[in-house]
Amino acid sequence: MKKPIKIFSLGVALIALMASCDKNRNHPGYSYFPDMENSQAYETYAESPVWEDGKTNQLPPEGTVPREMIPFDFEKTDVNRTWAGQELENPYHGEAEIVERGKELYGIYCINCHGDNGDGKGFLYTSGKYPYPPATLLSDKIKDNPDGEIFHVITVGFGMMGSHAAQVIPDDRWKIISYIRQELHQ
């Protein structure tokens, strides 16, 4: 009983092996699903019978957000900064690994202007390359600001500080704020 099964399996394997081989090395082999391999393509701005409006190029569905882009509805105004302070809440609350990651990120993005201790005496200012002193993160004003306002400032900028939205992803902004709150404001 086992011998016919082995012979049959060997025969199927031999047929599959021979079907996959070809004497012409420039021929890629056989296509078992040609409709999948050679689908009908349309030019971007050509007419298409697939869609009701007859256009190939379609708008994305309403409410679609591009990958890695999180909408930020607050503008660079004092009113919106205050509003962000009321609406936005830090998802992290002093967790040790979050604060440690925030410290690393602070060292990458913030230390050059705000300094090791957050006192505004970073290398760019102390070297004389930047004439205006950056804000000290140790002031009572910053300590009293809600986390949402600090997030807003990092995102869109404030005063002489430019936007860091392109450099620091939103999740990392919250980690930096957690570090500032936990370590610098003690």
TrEMBL record:
InterPro entries: Cyt_c-like_dom, Cyt_c-like_dom_sf
Signal peptide: none
Lineage: superkingdom: Bacteria
Domain Cytochrome c: start-end pairs: 97-184
Keywords from the UniProt entry: Heme, Iron, Metal-binding
Protein name: C-type cytochrome
UniProt source species: Carboxylicivirga linearis
